[in-house]
Design a protein that fits this description.
Elements (H helix, E strand, L loop, with lengths): L3 H8 L33 E5 L2 E4 L15 H4 L9 H26 L13 H5 L21 H31 L5 H16 L1
Antiparallel strand pairs: 1-2
Helix pairs in contact: 5-6
């Protein structure tokens, strides 16, 4: 009567045993299944202009579909020998202790008080999770305007030009009031400088 091990060895090729599992190729030659969202699942929108929003287009498929990337390409590999970083840390700590001891000896000989030790954080302090910043309950995210970048830039440019004209008129009135005459070429340059300073702040 055959044992279970003998039955397995006869049923499966020993060379295949121990290898990684065989993966089925996905759509378009992908390694694994296509995990992109379907049309009804998509939520990302973009501005179409005129205050309208339309669904965003799909991304282009990657050029390296079906090829496996090496681990060395995805993760940073060690650049030094194992344990070398620990040795460097130990040497630095030793040098710091030696420096502190020399400072205490020098202070003792000079008759001064020994320098205070640096407060080192405890393990519990280092492992303590930082508190997340609280969000203002009155905060409301800005709604999408539906305008394209060109439309937004145009609106902003119009506003800046209008504001600049107002500043220019104000500075011209100040100049006339101070000098009692209309600004000449030099006066216009001064007014332009003041307007630019106000626009930059």
């Amino acid at each position: 009567m055959k044992t279970f091990v003998q039955f397995i060895n006869e049923a499966y090729d020993p060379e295949v045993q121990g290898r990684s599992q065989i993966r089925k190729t996905g759509e378009g030659g992908r390694v694994g299944a296509n995990r992109k969202k379907s049309e009804p699942e998509k939520r990302r929108m973009k501005a179409a202009g005129g205050g309208k929003m339309v669904p965003a287009k799909d991304y282009k498929p990657r050029k390296d579909i079906g090829s496996q990337r090496q681990r060395s390409e995805r993760e940073q590999q060690p650049t030094q020998a194992r344990g070398s970083a620990r040795e460097t840390q130990l040497a630095a700590a030793k040098a710091e202790r030696k420096k502190a001891a020399q400072a205490r000896i020098a202070a003792k000989k000079a008759g001064k008080a020994a320098p205070e030790k640096k407060a080192t954080p405890t393990a519990s302090e280092l492992l303590k999770k930082k508190q997340a910043k609280k969000v203002n309950p009155n905060y409301k995210p800005a709604k999408a305007s539906g305008k394209t970048r060109a439309e937004r830039d145009k609106i902003r440019g119009e506003g800046e030009r209008y504001l600049k004209s107002v500043f220019k008129q104000q500075e011209t009135d100040k100049y006339k009031k101070a000098t009692g005459q209309a600004p000449d070429k030099k006066g216009k340059m001064k007014i332009a400088g003041r307007v630019n300073r106000r626009m930059s702040t």
